[in-house]
């Protein structure tokens, strides 16, 4: 039976899709059978980040409406054969997604996979609520910045009230994933510290993903950073986050600015 | 207590009528009253959303034919009227909210703890004698966008109160974590109520309708344990450490 994980944030553009792809790939690279679902109807992205955009035939809405079978819509990754994508529809109206349809798809995926990871659209409306509806666990993505943290707080409130688990009196396991953490800016006090973020959200930390050009390079070639540049600092942080998601106790280290350290040790070269 | 001048904030609407047991009692001239209401809701957007509000017409004493227009004006502001109190009116059209009779005190019952948010979205107004005041204890943090409404006593929060959330208590508000949202103590007309918190990052502190926003607070009162209380129409924010 799969664990259903929603990757959500409230605020847009904080790194949900990047994190869904990277965590999904990292879990699959560790041998888990993983399905990632794009819930961002009309603004689908996950297929691009996974480099599967030219192989999309059927989508989530087709499956919920019985037009296609789940097995026809799932796209197997070319690099890791335990990673599958269920794409969103780029053309359909987002109201075409019904709670009952999603319930059926998730129930079927639960039988076949170890992890089902749902990439939520931004916002707190219907689309985001459907993406979290059947989750057992939630990865709340936030940047170390006030508006993103406040939206994360809002999303946590919804996870505690609008999910099936919450309505049954159970709770969704929640984790914070801080992304785009910039060590140099943190050192200058230009961002919220990790302590500030955790103090405001009072929710455990899954990982700290540094700001990295490797993430951009990888998504431009249609690959999660964990596959494209596995030794990159962001990739390593995603691997560790994936291990924590599986219940492993991996010590947390704050990403440091290596260049800064290098400069300090060896002196700055004149530009 | 700090010696710097305290800015006195006064909000007639909030204080005189609109807050008392959430009975809105319009006064003539109506246009001015509505503008006052707009000013208040501008400061507290969404304050009335989903809350039962009783329209008390015993001051305005409008002609029965004018009531529908007034209800529509309020609806346009997102305020839904659940019942109307008007001693001088015998009957209203079926399209209007029901008339309340012989109500001395209208208590609007809608305790809304975060965990039970979905359950009671539109609890109808209930008429009853005020129950024994009792404290509402909340063990989980209050998240942004959540609203806790407890008109019958104190609200005690063991965690933090998030930015963009609010607590409305008939009695005092006690926050053992950081207060980052808005707290309204004594909201049903109790000027003796107070607000206590372990760490003050509040967006707004109000007692019995008198309030102070974060901008009006002494910077020295931020980030530390404080209490807020009402004295002579002025909200004082005093350090507890
Ligand atoms: N660690 C990182 N370092 C650098 N760039 C990043 C990092 N994480 C994400 N990005 C970039 O930030 C942008 C937004 O990321 P992404 O699309 O994953 O966010 P999202 O939360 O899914 O957005 P939306 O709310 O629109 O769905 C992308 O261009 C992505 O490449
Ligand atoms: Mg996205």
Describe the structure.
The complex is a heterodimer of chains A (271) and B (241). Chain A is α/β, with parallel strands linked by helices. Chain A has one domain: 3-Layer(aba) Sandwich (Rossmann fold), CATH 3.40.50.300. Chain A contains 14 helices and 8 strands. In chain A, strands 3-4-2-5-1-6-7-8 form an 8-stranded mixed β-sheet, with helices on both faces. In chain A, a hairpin with a 6-residue loop joins strand 3 and strand 4. In chain A, helix 1 crosses helix 13. The longest helix of chain A has 14 residues. Chain A is globular. Chain A starts with a strand and ends in a 5-residue tail after the last helix. In chain A, 52% of the residues are buried. The C terminus of chain A is likely disordered. Chain B has 241 residues and is an alpha/beta fold. Chain B has 2 domains: 101 residues, Alpha-Beta Plaits; 104 residues, Pectate Lyase C-like. Chain B is 13% helix and 27% strand. Chain B is built from 3 helices and 15 strands. In chain B, the strands form 3 sheets. Chain B has a 6-stranded mixed β-sheet, with no helix packed on it. A 5-stranded mixed β-sheet of chain B has the order 6-8-10-12-13, with no helix packed on it. Classes of the chains: A alpha/beta (271), B alpha/beta (241).
């Amino acid at each position: 039976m799969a664990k259903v994980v929603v990757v959500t944030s409230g605020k847009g553009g904080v790194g949900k899709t990047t994190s869904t792809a990277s965590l999904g790939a990292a879990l699959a690279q560790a041998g888990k059978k993983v399905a990632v679902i794009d819930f961002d109807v009309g603004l689908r992205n996950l297929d691009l980040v996974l480099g599967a955009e030219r192989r999309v035939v059927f989508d989530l809405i087709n499956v919920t409406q019985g037009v296609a079978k789940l097995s026809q819509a799932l796209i197997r990754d070319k690099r890791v054969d335990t990673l599958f994508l269920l794409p969103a529809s780029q053309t359909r109206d987002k109201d075409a997604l019904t709670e009952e349809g999603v319930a059926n798809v998730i129930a079927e995926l639960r039988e076949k996979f170890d992890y089902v990871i749902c990439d939520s659209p931004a916002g707190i409306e219907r689309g985001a609520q459907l993406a979290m509806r059947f989750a057992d666990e939630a990865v709340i993505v936030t940047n170390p910045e006030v508006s993103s943290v406040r939206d994360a707080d809002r999303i946590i409130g919804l996870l505690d009230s609008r999910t099936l688990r919450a309505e049954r009196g159970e709770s969704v396991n929640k984790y914070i994933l801080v992304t785009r953490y910039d060590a140099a800016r943190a050192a200058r006090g230009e961002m919220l510290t990790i302590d500030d973020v955790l103090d405001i959200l009072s929710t455990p930390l899954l990982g700290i993903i540094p700001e990295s050009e490797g993430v951009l390079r990888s998504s431009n070639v249609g690959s999660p950073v964990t596959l494209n540049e596995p030794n990159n600092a962001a990739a390593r942080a995603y691997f560790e986050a994936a291990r924590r998601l599986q219940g492993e106790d991996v010590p947390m280290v704050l990403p440091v600015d290596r260049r800064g350290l290098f400069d300090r040790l060896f002196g700055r070269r004149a530009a | 207590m700090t010696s710097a001048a305290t800015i006195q904030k006064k909000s007639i609407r909030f204080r005189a009528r609109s807050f008392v047991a959430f009975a809105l009692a319009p006064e003539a001239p109506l246009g001015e009253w509505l503008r006052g209401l707009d000013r208040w809701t501008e400061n507290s957007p969404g304050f009335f959303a989903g809350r039962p509000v009783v329209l008390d017409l015993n001051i305005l004493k409008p002609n029965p034919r004018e009531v529908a227009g007034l209800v529509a004006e309020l609806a346009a502001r997102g305020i839904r009227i659940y019942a109307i109190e008007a001693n001088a009116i015998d009957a209203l059209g079926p399209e209007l909210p029901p008339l309340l009779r012989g109500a001395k005190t209208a208590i609007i019952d809608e305790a809304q703890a975060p965990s039970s948010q979905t359950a009671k979205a539109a609890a109808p107004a209930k008429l009853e004698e005020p129950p024994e005041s009792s404290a509402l204890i909340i063990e989980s943090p209050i998240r942004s966008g959540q609203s806790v409404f407890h008109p019958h006593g104190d609200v005690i929060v063991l965690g933090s109160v998030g930015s963009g959330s609010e607590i409305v208590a008939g009695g005092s508000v006690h926050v053992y974590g950081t207060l980052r949202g808005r707290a309204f103590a004594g909201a049903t007309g109790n000027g003796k109520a107070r607000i206590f918190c372990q760490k003050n990052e509040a967006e707004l502190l109000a007692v019995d309708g008198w309030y102070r926003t974060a901008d009006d607070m002494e910077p020295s009162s931020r980030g530390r344990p404080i209490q807020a209380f009402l004295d002579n129409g002025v909200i004082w924010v005093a350090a507890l450490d």
